[in-house]
Design brief:
This protein has 75 residues and is mainly alpha-helical. It has one domain. The chain contains 3 helices and no strands. It is elongated.
Length: 75
């Protein structure tokens, strides 16, 4: 069953939603896409934090070069 949610948006967020709606066809599609993108990004960041913490626990602090390589993996 789908959930129904009401949002209170300021002018900037309302303009953003209108812009995205023009691309994705409906407000619902725009919000779904935006939520999916945000969730994907947050999952990737969380996975990177876990990866770095586990790696550092096993072999010590990462170098800047190693951190850059990890950033490339989690884009």
């Amino acid at each position: 069953m789908a959930d129904r949610t009401a949002l209170r948006l300021d002018e900037e967020a309302s303009a953003d939603l209108a812009f995205l709606s023009s691309i994705y066809g409906t407000q619902t599609a725009a919000v779904k896409h935006a939520l999916a993108q945000l969730a994907r990004r947050e999952r990737l960041l969380e996975n990177m934090r876990i990866f770095v913490a586990e790696t550092e626990a096993d072999s010590g602090a990462l170098t800047e070069q190693e951190l850059d390589a990890a950033r490339q993996l989690f884009r």
